[in-house]
Amino acid sequence: MIVGVPKEIKNNEYRVGMTPGGVREFVHHGHAVLVERSAGEGSSFTDEAYAAAGAELVDTAQEVFARADMIVKVKEPQPVEIEMLRPGQILFTYLHLAPDLPQTQGLIKSGAVCIAYETVELPNGTLPLLAPMSEVAGRMAAQVGATYLQKPFGGRGVLMGGVPGVLPAKVVVLGAGVVGTNAAYVAMGMGADVTVMDINIDRLRYLDEIWGNRVRTLYSSKHNIEEAVYQADLVIGAVLLPGAKTPWLVTREMLPHMKRGAVVVDVSVDQGGCIETTHPTTHADPTFVVDGVLHYGVANMPGAVPNTSTLALTNATLRYGLAIADKGWKQAVLDDPALAKGVNVLDGNITYKPVADAHGMNYTPLEKLL
Predict the structure, then answer these.
(1) Taking a C-beta distance cutoff of 8 angstroms, is the pair 276, 252 a contact?
(2) How many CB atoms lie within 10 A of CB 83?
(3) Cα–Cα distance, 83 to 254 (Å, whole number)
(4) What is the average per-residue pLDDT within 85-93?
């Protein structure tokens, strides 16, 4: 199979779909890998490193898309990239289709086989290809929150860990999954007063067992969310419904009751956000203010630490990508139910029900098409 790795073109996206080490594995399996020149520079991977790993360097994304059987990316295809997809071509990347109707329509029209990292799901419910970026984004959320709490950045002027005689910042983490756990871990390490909220009591019990009274756990009811958020200096949105639009836990009506200069970091913004007033922003223009509350809604947070992120992502995606290349996508998804759940769009059909439901469009079970 010919595998193509184009340079990412989303605003301030410095990650790349595959490391030179990943290229070497594909080549070892007998596949050809096309890498667009300078695709890895933002992640500190040189063209020379890709060439040494066995990649063929090409000058344009157009050539990558024209020649490759499978496109391996990081972020969802931008409109110009969607136009380059062709029927039967495999697209293997993050898609986040539920809040993105134009992209969904574009992929349906393309006729491509669109496999989303974020909906590959193991039998235990874990999301192995989303997890590494969730770990990065969660840990970054606490760092970003600490930065924007500083007065020059628009925050309340509160130090996360406080100092002797002065209370630390109150941090509320909505969601105790991978993002929330990592956000709480770093915020706790900074010395903040951390409360983690979730509807999964077993998950809260687990956090209580590993961290004890260093972190507070609280059931995520409407009343408890209001009480916690109104007292918070920093709110981190870490809610995920796999492949579906995120519900709003913090509504617009709640904002006037929050502290002036409080900060919200909504990591779930790429699935619609769990804070009603958030919308996707970029690293170039990351924040905005609503009712005196500073909002950070960058949809590709891990893109700010691309070397770490690309290494972590390739670690997770490599075996799945190799399975697709070695067996062909159809046999690969027949052999692996987890990978089958990653197929969101196939031959002009939506094959992942939460995406169809989000847009009120027709859903076609993958088994029917196979």
Answers:
(1) yes
(2) 12
(3) 41
(4) 98
Question: Distance of CA 284 to CAs 62, 80, 147, 212, 267, Å?
Answer: 26, 21, 16, 39, 17
The mean pLDDT of 124-132, rounded to a whole number, is: 93
Taken in order of first residue, the domains within the chain and their CATH numbers are: 2-120+306-369 (3.40.50.720), 131-304 (3.40.50.720)
Contacts of 142-146 with CB under 8 Å at 24 or more apart are 142/171, 142/183, 142/184, 142/185, 142/186, 142/187, 142/190, 142/192, 142/236, 143/186, 144/265, 144/296, 144/301, 145/171, 145/187, 145/234, 145/236, 145/263, 145/265, 145/296, 146/190, 146/234
- Residues designated catalytic: 96, 270
pLDDT higher than 90, residue 245:
no
Q: What is the largest CA-CA distance in the chain?
A: 65
CB 329 within 8 A of CB 89: no
**Letter for the amino acid at 69?**
D
DSSP-based three-state secondary structure for 29: coil
Q: In whole angstroms, give the CA distance from residue 174 to residue 197.
A: 5
Residue recorded with tokens 């983690």:
196
Residue 321 carries which side chain, given as an amino acid letter?
G
Which residue reads 């490193």 in tokens?
49
CB atoms within 10 A of CB 32: 17
* pTM of the complete model beyond 0.85: yes
CA distances from 5 to 23, 74, 228, 287 (A): 10, 9, 44, 31
Q: What are the angstrom distances between the C-alpha of 171 and each of 42, 177, 195?
A: 32, 16, 6
The answer to whether the CB of 297 falls within 8 A of the CB of 280 is: yes
How much is the average pLDDT of 52-56? Answer: 98
Q: In what order do the strands lie in the sheet with 2-5?
A: 56-58, 32-36, 2-5, 70-72, 90-93, 113-116, 343-346, 349-350
**R_g over Cα of the chain:** 21
